Amino acid sequence: TQANPGQAVTYTVQVSNTGQGVATSVVLDDVLSPYLNFGVNSFGANMPFSFTDGATPSTLTPGTASYTDRNGAPYPALTPGANGASANFDGNVGAWTLPMNGNMPAGSSFSIQYKAEVR
């Protein structure tokens, strides 16, 4: 599949607890390609992520995400249109971290989606 500059792409991160015990302190993080702008309002106003529980619910809820810029420095506030990005994307985000609230039972799963714009 080919994506062109200005085109939005959706990423899905699927998480499963395949162990025997409860997973605690679940945290997701990702480093964006330098060729992508991070989606700020992808799933509603100020909603960059979409959370979906699996067939066996995880009982988790998304916490408050944190971001770093492309140089690895803390980036405290998402800014639509920053660094040449389109209106619903931020070109300064280099990575994100999303802590999950709660504990994840064995055999459960969930997915997180986020969007990015090709630079």
Order of helices and strands: EEEEEEEEE
Structural class: mainly beta
Percent of sequence in beta strands: 35-45%
- Rg over C-alpha atoms, rounded to the nearest angstrom: 15 Å
Mean pLDDT: 97
The helix content, as a percent range, equals under 10%
Specify the overall morphology.
elongated
Number of structurally distinct domains: 1
Number of helices: 0
* Main beta-sheet annotation: 5 strands, antiparallel
Which residues form runs of ≥5 with pLDDT under 50?
none
Termini Cα gap: 16 Å
Number of strands: 9
Describe the structure in your own words.
This protein has 119 residues and is an all-beta fold. The chain has one domain (8-118). The protein is 0% helix and 41% strand. It has no helices and nine strands. 22% of the residues are buried. The mean pLDDT is 97.
What are the salient characteristics of this protein?
4-stranded antiparallel β-sheet; single chain; 119 residues; 9 strands; 5-stranded antiparallel β-sheet; mainly beta
What topology emerges from the helices and strands here?
Layout: E1 8-16, E2 27-31, E3 36-39, E4 50-53, E5 61-62, E6 66-69, E7 89-90, E8 93-101, E9 109-118
Antiparallel strand pairs: 1-9, 2-8, 3-7, 3-9, 4-9, 5-8, 6-8
What is the gist of this entry?
This protein is mainly beta and 119 residues long.
